Structure of ABC transmembrane type-1 domain-containing protein:
Amino acid sequence: MSTLQKNKWPLLFTGASIILFIIFFLIPALLGLYYSLTDYKGFATANFIGLANYQELFQDASFYKALFRTFRYVIILVPSIYVVSLAVALMLNSQLAKGKFFAKIIFFLPWTISGIIAGVIWKWLFGENFGFINFILEQAGQQTVPWFTDSNAAFSVIILAAIWGGTAFNMLQFTAALKNIPRSLYEAAEIDGASFGHKLRYITLPMLRPTSFMVILLASIGAMKEFALVQSLTNGGPGTDNMLIVQYIYTTGFDKMRVGYASAASMVLFVILLLLGLAQMKIGGGKNDI
């Protein structure tokens, strides 16, 4: 049997992956890079203008506001998702927990819902004039909250909705990792009289380090690229107070018809995500041999 025949299936599947990568990532990326150097408006001719889009972008206050707003979103969301996901996984992994099967279904359901649908659900819950939360507050004799006309309140709703939607996938990762921790470690700790906090600190968290690294990396990248949830929930409002970087790119490219300028912003976002991934791999990658 020839080498080609022996390796035909690996080559077939690898080749399919490479083709998909070229079609859906490499070609769009190269087109985006090309458009970022032009004045393309989505129609007509794309005229080459060099680095003019980048020069304008780095002087655009709206771009910096959207970018730093996204950083704030990531800094708040990622630790929150980590803590909530780990807490849920620990509860589901506990021998004292009852109804684990139904609990897993309940916690997993949000992950099956698209960001657009999730935004509609949370918009119904927190609607100022028709929302369920304000209805409960009224019935309790409390003052209603202007959830979507106050920028801080709207940002809080976005964070809550993102945690709700992002917990399921990370919870599953932690649940699988917890099952791989040898039970003998906990039994030895219990014999020594270790508390739950000590077992969490000295056994669980160190053993979960590779999973923690992956959860933080994927959650950070996902938060930086957040679009559907925010778009359907607040549309970046009130005004542009909660417009994140991907919404800025979308608005610039499709509403203002400045595809070249939006492509330049996309390239900057790509570099930021690349640096973010490399930095997290540098910090956490070398410690994943536990």
Summary: The chain has 14 helices and no strands. The longest helix spans residues 61-93.
